[in-house]
Amino acid sequence: MGWGMGAGAQLAHTLAGQAIQRAPAQAKGVYDTAYAQAIRDGKSPDDAMWEGLDALAQTPEGQQTLAILAQEWKTQAAAQETPSAPG
Prior knowledge:
Elements (H helix, E strand, L loop, with lengths): L2 H20 L2 H16 L4 H13 L2 H22 L6
Helix pairs in contact: 1-3, 1-4, 2-3
């Protein structure tokens, strides 16, 4: 596995973890149900995670949670790219 694929997988797991932690209970249930069904269907845990995130994104609560996370990540990325003032 190349570095890029490893970083991408790590990012996906981080996103999934944060989304699940922040999502309201009802939306978490949607994720859990989709994840469990994907596992029962023989999908890998990574593929099941994507199935769960997709199901989460279909709910208004999930969409709001993912939008907040996306904005936070965008803000953090912009802060990291901004050069520091000379000290």
